Amino acid sequence: MAMTPELLAYYGQDKEDERLRAGRGRLEFWRTQDVLRRALPPAPARVLDVGGGTGVHAEWLAADGHRVELIDPMPLHVERAARLAGVTARQGDARRLPVPDESVDAVLLLGPLYHLADRVDRVRALAEAVRVVRPGGLVAAATINRYAAVHDMVYQGLYLREEPRETANAALVDGLLDGPGIDFNAYMHDPDDVPAEFADAGLPEVTRYGLEGAFWLYGDVGDWLDDPERRALMLDAQRRLELVPSLLGVSGHILTLARK
Asked: How many Cβ atoms sit within 10 Å of the Cβ of residue 136?
């Protein structure tokens, strides 16, 4: 993966493990879990978690009974993930997976496409997933929406500052979130570009799921997620809206699924 010095510094702070376990990030986590649990084959399936970080998703997948192998370019992430029960972990690159052809039941790319700025690299990573998954197996990839930086910076109040505002606005043009005022550079997809990248990798039929909908932008989203009853209602509401084409772009992330 394209591990720039800035990304190495960001991930070296070990923030990623906490991002999906607290605050608004829990909505992304629980929605990803919800969609994948409906799509994955019954346990025990062999699941390859590419770019899986510290194992936030690998942990629950293994607890569900799946055989999980995590691949990540960051040694710190691999070290932490390897401690999880039922998870094996090693370093690797999404574009060159150290895995035999048609040897896994599902491939998850829940981070790599964020960090591959060149389209050819994103298609190569998806093609590698196609290579290693068995016929009929699942390929699932997360993408950050092109509009997420503007939405998020308005939510956080950062849009009031010139440098982050210019960085977010520039990303609307070419998808590259990289500049002053941010600590996380990334590639941000136009939602309508994702199916073509999957098709070029050999997956012509896809389904796109809006993960957070508009709810991640609600000022009281944390209160809803803290309360089990309200959380269940919010997750149910977004499940009802997850496939609405006109609402896909408002989500912070889209999860795209295809079968080989």
From this structure: 9
Token code pair at residue 216 = 């991640």
What pTM does this model have? 0.94
Kindly report, residue by residue over 34-77, the tens digit of the pLDDT: 999 999 999 999 999 999 999 999 999 999 999 999 999 999 99
**DSSP letters for the chain:** ----HHHHHHHHTT-HHHHTTSTTHHHHHHHHHHHHHHHSPSSS-EEEEET-TTTHHHHHHHHTT-EEEEEES-HHHHHHHTTSTTEEEEE-BTTB-SS-TT-EEEEEESSGGGG--SHHHHHHHHHHHHHHEEEEEEEEEEEEBTTHHHHHHHHHTGGGSHHHHHHHHHHHHHSEE-STT-S--EE-B-GGGHHHHHHHTT---EEEEESSTTGGG-TTHHHHHHSHHHHHHHHHHHHHHTT-GGGGGGSSEEEEEEE-
